[in-house]
Specification:
alpha+beta, six-stranded antiparallel β-sheet, 6 helices
Length: 176
């Protein structure tokens, strides 16, 4: 798996072009003899592959860090009759943080605070990578107006939602 990611990274950083450039510089240095103790051509021969490997590893690390970002909520739907007790179905962007039937918590960002307003689980991860979350419990009665706006796809409210791939300990303790 890691080699597959490294190959994708090699392609993204134009590894073939960098390799060809390093090879051309190496060949050029074989014909130009600098006056040093260690021929520069040997330095380039050994340094070029390590430089390319360094670039590929940096790209892989950068891509891994990007996956940590929480996905945005794209839309909300009213649950159909099969999930009549549920609060809402949320459609999230692609993310590697969520798996099928994993528990999630729903937060509403208000000023500098994130208020827990519900929890549920991943209903399905679609073939294209979009994630459907079924919210099965809302937290606090004061959130009714927020949930109504969410179910009506109010963009200003959906943009303030944070879906986290875990649930708080308090929910586990009360067994809600």
């Amino acid at each position: 798996m890691i080699f597959k990611e490294m190959y994708k990274s090699f392609i993204r950083v134009n590894g073939y072009v960098l390799s060809l450039g390093g090879l051309l510089i190496m060949l050029l240095l074989f014909f130009v003899t600098p006056t040093t103790e260690i021929p520069v051509r040997w330095v380039v021969v050994f340094a070029a592959p390590f430089f390319l490997l360094f670039i590929v590893v940096c790209d892989v690390a950068y891509r891994a860090i990007q996956d940590i970002v929480l996905p945005k909520v794209k839309a909300s739907y009213r649950p159909h009759s099969l999930y009549s007790d549920a609060i809402a179905i949320l459609l999230l962007e692609k993310s590697n943080l969520f798996g099928h039937e994993s528990l999630v918590s729903v937060y509403f960002k208000e000023d500098a605070f994130e208020k827990l307003i519900g929890w549920g689980y991943v209903l399905t991860v679609q073939q294209g990578g979009l994630i459907q979350v079924l919210v099965i419990r809302e937290v606090g009665e004061a959130q009714d107006s927020i949930w109504e706006k969410i179910r009506n796809n109010d963009g200003s409210v959906l943009s303030k939602l944070l879906i986290r791939p875990s649930i708080p300990k308090i929910i586990q303790d009360i067994g809600a």
